[in-house]
Amino acid sequence: MSTIRLPKGYRFAGVACGIKASEKPDVSLVVCDVPAVASGVYTQNQVVAAPVQICRQRTPSETIRAVVTNSGNANACTGQQGQTDALAMCQHVAGLLDSKPESVLVMSTGVIGHHLPMPKVTEGIQKAHDSLGDQEEDFLGAADAILTTDLSRKVASAEVSLDGQTIRIAAMAKGAGMINPNMATMLALIITDAKLTTKQASRFAKSVADATFNRVSVDGHTSTNDTQLLLANGASEVAITEANEQAFQEALISVTQPLAIALAADGEGAERIMNVQVSGAQSDEDAELIARTVGASPLVKTALTGCDPNWGRIVSAAGYAGPKIDPDRTCLTIEGHQLYHNGAPTAFDEATVSQAIKDQKQVDVQLIVGSGPGKSNHITSDLTTSYVTFNSEYTT
Amino acid sequence: MSTIRLPKGYRFAGVACGIKASEKPDVSLVVCDVPAVASGVYTQNQVVAAPVQICRQRTPSETIRAVVTNSGNANACTGQQGQTDALAMCQHVAGLLDSKPESVLVMSTGVIGHHLPMPKVTEGIQKAHDSLGDQEEDFLGAADAILTTDLSRKVASAEVSLDGQTIRIAAMAKGAGMINPNMATMLALIITDAKLTTKQASRFAKSVADATFNRVSVDGHTSTNDTQLLLANGASEVAITEANEQAFQEALISVTQPLAIALAADGEGAERIMNVQVSGAQSDEDAELIARTVGASPLVKTALTGCDPNWGRIVSAAGYAGPKIDPDRTCLTIEGHQLYHNGAPTAFDEATVSQAIKDQKQVDVQLIVGSGPGKSNHITSDLTTSYVTFNSEYTT
């Protein structure tokens, strides 16, 4: 296991307080020793959970001291009581840190429409605070406590030299279901010891989301709770300037990109993912919508499940995505095998291509839809019987 | 079995010519003894099959003599050869009827990207012509020959008295997969002996599609071949006027509505359908988009599979549909049980509501999203492991 390069000046804890019947960790606390700059990107769903409403009000900020997250309960569609509970979570953390409630951010994930068991949550926050630490095991504990139906932990980090000085970035995420662009049911917390202005933090948060988390989908259902937070406490004393911002942005993406891919790979029931790369569209936006539409088609996703080189499903999905395409210049290549060229099928060996798909966990699809300059990509999971079984048995 | 009320002046045949390996019927022929007025509504996919391109050019028309349909092969994404083959099908029918090729319409459905086995198809057309008849069994034979993965025959008819005179309407359809609004992989042929102008035929064809076939979905994948044709040969000598057009329109919908519902109910792997009725939206268009988005969510569809009254999935899908909703005035009722009222959950017994869902083959969902005047509905199937198994095994 690779070592996490933890940014300076943060402490972490993850504990179990009994929100989850499984007794797995369900309260995560990340604390900054000094006030950090923070910005957020949130769900575009109009039905938003209480914690998202609170984070939206409080970011961007220059005075964030902590992020508290609970898993096992989304605190969504819970009315006024939900607001009161989310505020109480922040208040309790603030009290323990001798800070203001406005300096605490909150995230929740889990079932919708149930009130939080606040006595348990309060106890959990106290326990988390008592066990805060700055070691890798503490970070991993905090990362594990935000998971729900995820099969694996999602963490990444980077150490980058900017102008001869070192900064670090680390991130944790959770995914699994209700995954769609526009910040599906996913939570991500990115921390760095670089020194950012709130304006920079907001810009980086958005560009990172657009390049990574907004390009993956599992089931196309945009959640009520999606949140990506970026915290920068400046503990490295390295400021981000015009000269190094490109390197910093690349480092941010190097940390978040594998987490975004892990979200799709760890989609409920997923066995395989597909990277749909679209080019030749009239604009990047058009290419993105086409890639996303192909990735969302249940027929494309079940073809992937069966390792079936069913190019007709991909080409026809591109045709109904909306943006103008040129059917007579449309070409499709899967794992290096060209299956469709300028609007007509090529002669290819189905068994060979099927085996090429079977050999990959991440299948490469190149779709040319015309001769325009627009290109983008989208990562999607396959649709398996396990997804259906899991989600038709999941209890309200 | 109810008797089909066949319009006057049409003959029918369905035969097997070997396009389908199963040796089931795969060539369907419907002939008008006199030239009929005809109009069509077609897929909105930009990747369109050769037969759709030909029908688009030929409708509206006042001189249609026949509709020839093959199943088992979509003749889609087949390039210039596909055009040539579709034209040859029309030409062959025209020759047998001593008519012009322009007076023949053609539909195809089945796998994408394979060339039609034209010697077999030509033989099939000859055989169908030789067995044309005007009896119910002939009509049913023609209806069976357009089916693909459908589990059941889809036919309906009506006899209506307009101004004391009788007209008849009959229709056949096929569905099963790639079903989405905007004329998914579905074919429908509606015939009547009423007397319509081409303008009337076009108007009725569109309004019927909007009210019925465009409100059902199975997998949200818009096909390359969707076609709804309306033929009116005037054999009843009853013209449609301002005075009786409302009654005629209602009769058309009474024939096509059950076929549209049958498409969803017979969706690949479907066990249950859901009628999502949205009201309180800002416009009917908004309501339609919300109802369609709820119906398309895999999480909503799998909740239906599990008879799970998981209202959070429905409410959150409404929240990401796009149109403005009022979360604080959002209410949800399933099978008469109110589960969510003005943005907060109600106290309800999950087992009771789950049983109420289980008791129905068509589940009634009422979703209020605000206080606007807009309302619409959408019919969707559940998502079962059978759908996934079927579509991940389906060979290119």
Largest interface: A-B, 67 and 67 residues
Q: Tell me, what's the shape of chain A?
A: globular
Looking at the chains present, what oligomeric state does this protein adopt? homodimer
What structural class do the secondary elements of chain A suggest?
alpha+beta
Q: How much helical structure, as a percent, in the residues of chain A?
A: 25-40%
- Taking the alpha carbons of the first and last residues of chain A, their distance comes to 37 Å
Radius of gyration of chain A, Cα only, in angstroms?
22 Å
Highest-level CATH class of the largest domain in chain A:
Alpha Beta
Question: Which topology of the largest domain in chain A does CATH recognise?
Answer: L-amino peptidase D-ALA esterase/amidase
Question: Unreliable segments of chain A (pLDDT under 50, ≥5 consecutive)?
Answer: 179-184
Number of strands of chain A: 15
Subunit structure (chains A, B): Heterotetramer of two alpha and two beta chains.
GO cellular component, one term (chains A, B): cytoplasm
Protein name (chains A, B): Arginine biosynthesis bifunctional protein ArgJ
Enzyme class (chains A, B): transferase
Provide keyphrases for this structure:
homodimer, 396 residues, alpha+beta, L-amino peptidase D-ALA esterase/amidase, Ubiquitin-like (UB roll), 2 domains, eight-stranded mixed beta sheet, 34% helix
